Amino acid sequence: xxxxxxxxxxxxxxxxxxxxxxxxxxxxxxxxxxxxxxxxxxxxxxxxxxxxxxxxxxxxxxxxxxxxxxxxxxxxxxxxxxxxxxxxxxxxxxxxxxxxxxxxxxxxxxxxxxxxxxxxxxxxxxxxxxxxxxxxxxxxxxxxxxxxxxxxxxxxxxxxxxxxxxxxxxxxxxxxxxxxxxxxxxxxxxxxxxxxxxxxxxxxxxxxxxxxxxxxxxxxxxxxxxxxxxxxxxxxxxxxxxxxxxxxxxxxxxxxxxxxxxxxxxxxxxxxxxxxxxxxxxxxxxxxxxxxxxxxxxxxxxxxxxxxxxxxxxxxxxxxxxxxxxxxxxxxxxxxxxxxxxxxxxxxxxxxxxxxxxxxxxxxxxxxxxxxxxxxxxxxxxxxxxxxxxxxxxxxxxxxxxxxxxxxxxxxxxxxxxxxxxxxxxxxxxxxxxxxxxxxxxxxxxxxxxxxxxxxxxxxxxxxxxxxxxxxxxxxxxxxxxxxxxxxxxxxxxxxxxxxxxxxxxx
Length: 507
Description:
This protein has helices at residues 29-62, 79-96, 109-132, 139-169, 183-195, 235-242, 252-267, 309-328, 330-343, 378-381, 402-409, 417-422, 436-440, 459-462, 470-483, 486-502, and strands spanning 8-9, 68-69, 77-78, 175-180, 201-207, 218-221, 224-227, 246-249, 273-276, 288-293, 296-301, 349-355, 361-367, 427-429, 455-457. It is of the alpha/beta class.
């Protein structure tokens, strides 16, 4: 993220200390109310889903009858009773694993992971109990309940997450945040919250160490003035005045251990949350581990993994997925090849030299979407370049053929890249494959893109594609290089399908 000097607008108002604010005025009930409503909704939805899944499994396996599961060690159990026990245990397991916590509900990967863990472990416990007590439970019944219930739970949470995000983008269900820290750090954090309203955090004020407090200044955050309420000693007064229900601290060095502890005690009577920003950006959660050292809670940042078992697993995934994708898209590949050949003269496939892992060049395959010899016309069009940084992009490129515009819009021109995946030149998910002339203009940190194989898709593909700025494209690629994982790859693939269907950012 680039260093941008925040704009200040000084307003002639009285000192904040002059405000006589009654402590009873601090009201965090608004957030508590909508959080409680979300939690109740999740309980009701989960209960409906679980009961329906178990009932459907019993109905499919046994019809309207309710047979008995035989046991050698205890009394025989009626399947209606078994269904009730499984449903109640399932609902309890979801609660025990904290899937209804306001901090988890609607938050995506962590929420899905907890639901998966609770469900898998519950059915594992059911299998163990059935083995120990020698209960003959129909496998089809258990399997159907598991698959239907888990799928429905994940889908219901996904729809709920989308609904919550839409509400937050409208300014509803927002957490009011007071940010404490240096001006540049406060500005970056507040700007991130402002850009991603779906996260549910809205900055209502800031406190900057060393601020005189003589005037109530404002930071201009994405066109919205955010008041400065004073220095690090004005936090409690600022909370009372702004109605913030969360304090985000980036000024840990100014406050110190005693200051943080004192702030926790001061905020406790008002039911205000305290969060601390470690100042670590673009590092995924699994790489951040809290470990106590000498009585101090230290955040350890694990190094990114580029080799070993994790790399081998990614290779296996790439090969299997590429084979599946090529087989599934075979009819589309044949029709596209025929259309490209009929539409204009030239080869069906276009081989573009790209730079891969370690700086090794390879020929990336694509369906030809431009006229034959389009590369020779590039110099004449450079003045019309709309791309950012070293990228060349042109929304109405005259070299693109009629068929080319269609297959580009639908990203069909990129399907042959799965052949590159099988040749081990590319990965299914990774950074954008760069041209040689782009790599020659890379500075030091951008070259970290070359630590992993380029991908058919990636964070750049699901975050805007051609409409991204050069800096944002680089940031996303480097973030992927540092934090890639198999689960993350699967999520990017799902988002890619949505982006391609919508045609978002492609030209």
